[in-house]
């Protein structure tokens, strides 16, 4: 993105945040968007202070999400939607999540769309949504920490438990024979994932697999003797750590004499080493709740519009911002207070049908702890190219 475009983009964003109070408060549908924008780090009052440099990576997820939201707002505006949109920077200096929630209380929002980046943010605004009976759509945070007894909380980015269970079922269904090897590293989260994977086998016919814990920077000599050159190897990566996943994929990419399927966690979506493989005997599988096909008519139009505005190529966070804003605003406009009773309506889908199900963390719970999107897609990648999506 050219420097001039970057500066203009930041300035427009800053002005939009400062002028939000000018919105027409008489409109019946008022929506809050929460995103990690870090505006105080980019501006000193109205002066852009990052200079003629590329925008730091820290800013990009929030800015891309905001871009997508505003592109959806433009689409809704063209359709005549009666909407009052307020965007809040969750990374404003000197402002805690609790302070922001208190500021938002008097606004009486009809819905909140959030890109959380911490468990504290999720905890604070989950409580806020429950206490004020406001549906909150959590778009990007795949964690149920501190979310309990809140039927107003919608989790779009499916939980790790859902991913793990679906990976287990997918492997069981699609690979009836082969040598299964579960590869992990030392860590509390890795232990949790391994227990989830083992628990998934208790609900169905169990897979026969061997588990091995490897050091972070393991070598081919430590992995390949555990594989079989005479049969198909199904390697399950039981870690979200991207460096560990990269080491695994590079090792398997160089093991050209082995027929291998490498099954990874959702962190493999967008991992560079997935698209950098050249081994024709290596099939990579990873799970994701999002399926943004760039050949899709809506996605293609968004790509073209983004290129015209910003002279760049949009990432998935742009699509996530657009879809969450457009889909759920249309739902809200149609169903109003009955939105939560009509979540199966996928008329305005973009990435694919959502599959919302209530989740109870305790069998004795009287109400759902949250509502989760259980729809999972599996991407197959071979030699850096997506071969299929299931």
Protein architecture, described:
- This protein has 390 residues and is an alpha/beta fold.
- It folds into two domains: 3-158 and 294-354, Rossmann fold (3-Layer(aba) Sandwich); 160-288 and 378-389, Response regulator (Rossmann fold, 3-Layer(aba) Sandwich).
- The chain is 37% helix and 19% strand.
- It has helices at 3-18, 39-42, 60-78, 97-105, 119-131, 160-174, 188-200, 220-223, 242-254, 272-275, 297-310, 316-335; strands spanning 30-35, 43-44, 47-48, 84-89, 111-114, 136-138, 153-155, 179-184, 209-213, 233-237, 260-264, 282-288, 356-359, 370-373, 377-382, 385-389.
- The strands form three sheets. The chain has a seven-stranded mixed β-sheet, sandwiched between helices. A seven-stranded mixed β-sheet has the order 9-8-10-11-12-15-16, with helices on both faces.
- α7 links the parallel β8 (179-184) and β9.
- The protein is globular, with a radius of gyration of 22 Å.
- The model is unreliable at 1-25 (pLDDT under 50).
What's the architecture of the largest domain, going by CATH?
A: 3-Layer(aba) Sandwich
Which class of the largest domain in CATH terms?
A: Alpha Beta
Rg over alpha carbons: 22 Å
CATH fold-level topology of the largest domain: Rossmann fold
CATH superfamily of the largest domain: Response regulator
Can you list the strand order of the major beta sheet?
A: 4-1-5-6-7-14-13
Average pLDDT reading: 89
- Total helical segments: 12
Briefly note the structural class of the backbone: alpha/beta
Distance between the termini: 34 Å
How many beta-strand elements?
16
Order of helices and strands: HEHEEHEHEHEEHEHEHEHEHEHHEEEE
Q: Specify the helix fraction band.
A: 25-40%
Q: Could you name the ranges where pLDDT drops below 50 across 5 or more consecutive residues?
A: 1-25
**Tertiary shape:** globular
Number of domains: 2
């Amino acid at each position: 993105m050219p420097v001039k475009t970057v500066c203009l983009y930041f300035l427009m964003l800053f002005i939009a945040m400062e002028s939000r109070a000018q919105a027409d408060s008489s409109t019946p549908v008022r929506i809050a968007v929460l995103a990690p924008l870090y505006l105080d780090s980019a501006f000193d009052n109205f002066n852009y202070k990052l200079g003629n440099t590329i925008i730091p990576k820290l800013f990009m997820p929030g800015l891309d999400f905001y871009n997508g939201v505003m592109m959806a707002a433009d689409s809704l505006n063209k359709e005549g939607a009666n909407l009052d949109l307020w965007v809040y920077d969750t990374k404003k200096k000197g402002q805690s999540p609790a302070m922001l929630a208190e500021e938002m209380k008097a606004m009486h929002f009809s819905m909140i769309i959030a890109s959380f980046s911490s468990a504290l943010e999720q905890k604070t605004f989950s409580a806020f949504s429950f206490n004020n009976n406001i549906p909150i759509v959590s778009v990007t945070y795949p964690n149920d920490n501190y979310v309990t007894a809140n039927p107003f909380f919608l989790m779009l980015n499916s939980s790790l438990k859902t991913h793990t269970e679906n990976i287990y079922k997918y492997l069981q269904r699609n690979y009836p024979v082969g040598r299964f090897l579960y590869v992990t590293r030392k860590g509390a989260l890795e232990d949790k994932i391994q227990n989830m994977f083992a628990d998934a086998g208790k609900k169905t016919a169990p897979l026969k697999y061997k588990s091995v814990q490897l050091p972070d920077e393991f070598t081919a000599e430590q992995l390949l003797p555990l594989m079989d050159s005479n049969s198909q190897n199904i390697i399950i990566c039981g870690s979200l750590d991207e460096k560990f996943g990269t080491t695994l994929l590079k090792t398997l990419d160089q093991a050209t004499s082995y027929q291998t399927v490498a099954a990874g966690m959702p962190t493999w979506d967008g991992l560079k080493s997935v698209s950098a493989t050249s081994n024709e005997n290596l099939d990579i599988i990873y799970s994701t709740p999002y399926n943004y096909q760039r050949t899709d008519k809506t996605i293609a139009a968004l790509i073209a519009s983004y290129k015209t505005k910003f002279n760049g190529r949009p990432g998935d966070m742009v699509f996530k911002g657009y879809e969450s804003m457009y889909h759920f605003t249309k739902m809200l406009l149609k169903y109003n207070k009955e939105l939560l009773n009509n979540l199966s309506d996928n008329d305005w889908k973009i990435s694919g049908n959502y599959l919302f199900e209530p989740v109870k963390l305790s069998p004795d719970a009287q109400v759902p702890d949250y509502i989760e999107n259980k729809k999972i897609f599996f991407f197959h990648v071979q030699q850096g190219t997506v071969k299929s999506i299931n």
